[in-house]
Amino acid sequence: MHEFRSHTCAQLRSSNVGETVRLSGWVHRVRDHGGVLFIDLRDHYGMTQIVADPDSPAFETAEKVRAEWVIRIDGNVKARDEDTINKEMPTGKVEVYARQIEVLSTAGELPLPVFGDQDYPEDTRLRYRFLDLRRERIHNNIIKRGQIIASIRNRMVEQGFNEFQTPILTASSPEGARDFLVPSRMHPGKFYALPQAPQQFKQLIMMSGFDRYFQIAPCFRDEDARADRSPGEFYQLDVEMSFVTQEDVFQAIEPVLRGVFEEFADGKSVTGEFPRIPYAESIAKYGTDKPDLRNPIEMADVTEHFAGSGFKVFAGMIAADEKVRIWAIPAPKGGSRAFCDRMNSWAQKQGQPGLGYIFWREGEAGGAGPLAKNIGEERTTAIKDQLGLEVGDACFFVAGVPAKFVDFAGQARTQIGTSLNLIDDNRFDFCWIVDFPMFEYNEDEKKIDFSHNPFSMPQGGMEALENQDPLTINAWQYDIVCNGIELSSGAIRNHRPDIMEKAFEIAGYDKEILEEEFGGMYRAFQYGAPPHGGIAPGIDRIVMLLCGEQNLREVVLFPMNQQAEDLLMGAPAEVSARQLRELHIRLNLPKE
């Protein structure tokens, strides 16, 4: 027999009854039932119930074991009585009567229990992450993560993509976040950077004559933590393709994401087709470029119904500034004063003066509420008809310049949908957000600047750059969104140096900036660059969605805390004076 086990703790079934077996694992818990000891023995694969009665030679040792001790069990497999079968466990029809127990290692007092799923302070969980990872939910999340990545990799290969690895030590690049810098011992005073993304490398791969590249790529960004973004490092499905249009990228990526989500959805439905929603439409309907399409609420512009109306606040704003718009946020089944008052209070907690509303109830002409009385039955009915509302529904209103209130409007839409239980949690709804603006007006610097990725190809190419108002030019740039979470941005790249130079010129950057900041890629464009494009969905976010978690730290093996500290390994940490001398570095620490 093997030194440690003949079976795992998930393998034994009724067909094994009568066999002598050896199991090894962790003591999940010990229960004393009238002098008979029951030990739930756990390993990576599952759990088996061990029984030690007072007549067993293993009983004396069984009395000593405690939670998370590692033990080896020799014993006989027996069938459980009908009334003791545990249908929740694959091994629930059998148990092992222990003949011998050997303690392989003991465990001290636990800083957090492995049994159960209690909520513990994050710092405790991260400092003792090796214990946290033994807990069933987190353990299963990490196993599922590996399975999801394997599935993605297989699907990409089946689509004709080749997997390549790009450098980890590279040059610093201004890509929007701070770089992690690595000092060079061999080149004093110079630094490598950890890649924020393999962006330039994957474009260089296309210029090297390869066609379809992918990589499960580690990325490093020195930025603050968020629930949907890990501090320090994260992984993405990095993809680039040559001789493709935007639609070609969509057709390559959709089957991969749909297939992975269908495989791991656990009964949830997955979007059939991924709708394409223009950026401007997404902002106007949902108040965000990351819409949760499970929420059926669509906002609408109802400015015309308030212009010149008896509601002087809105009417006066409209008359004073042509940029002012009134947006309506429907609330199906929210037609009660109590709900409207709750939403008004919620808005005030968000720092708003309030949230105007109208609601419709049985037997009442027009609508109810202060706004309805001010604008009259005809206008109220027109709003109701435009939005397709009925008796029992409500509608809320935000007013001003949309760019200033759009974030709040989007939050209000989400709050209404959540409060009225309109969001179906048993769906994964994908969409593409397309037609992002190439440029925007920078109010702080009073100049035109790039809106998103400066290396996206402008729609219309050079002709648009030379003849069109820059603020009306869209880019071949796109995001993919699922359930309100942005999984990735992508773009058809600007592969022509002349178009790139013109785009940077419009944004106030001269050719020298291109050569200085992006010299390697810019030089490569001079030697025959194919039209190419790509995308990079976030692996951690995909896993988070499929595991039903709200925080990335629940699906990452060894995450950092909110302060970008690894509490388990003690990083970042001070280094010795000798190490600093070798790197020709002298510290200049801030004064406390």
Please tell me about this protein's structure.
The chain has 592 residues and is an alpha+beta fold. Helix 4 packs antiparallel against helix 6 (246-264) and helix 13 (461-467) packs parallel to helix 14 (497-506).
Which helices and strands appear, and what pairs or packs with what?
Blueprint: E1 20-33, E2 36-42, E3 47-52, H1 59-62, E4 70-79, E5 94-105, H2 122-127, H3 129-132, H4 136-158, E6 162-163, E7 180-183, E8 191-194, H5 199-207, E9 212-221, E10 232-242, H6 246-264, E11 269-270, E12 276-278, H7 279-286, E13 300-301, H8 303-306, H9 312-320, E14 325-331, H10 337-349, E15 356-359, H11 370-387, E16 394-400, H12 402-419, E17 427-428, E18 430-434, E19 439-442, E20 447-450, H13 461-467, E21 477-482, E22 485-492, H14 497-506, H15 511-517, H16 519-524, E23 532-535, H17 539-546, H18 577-582
Parallel strand pairs: 3-5, 6-9, 11-17, 12-18
Antiparallel strand pairs: 1-2, 1-4, 2-3, 4-5, 7-8, 9-10, 10-23, 13-14, 14-16, 15-16, 18-21, 19-20, 21-22, 22-23
Helix pairs in contact: 4-6, 13-14
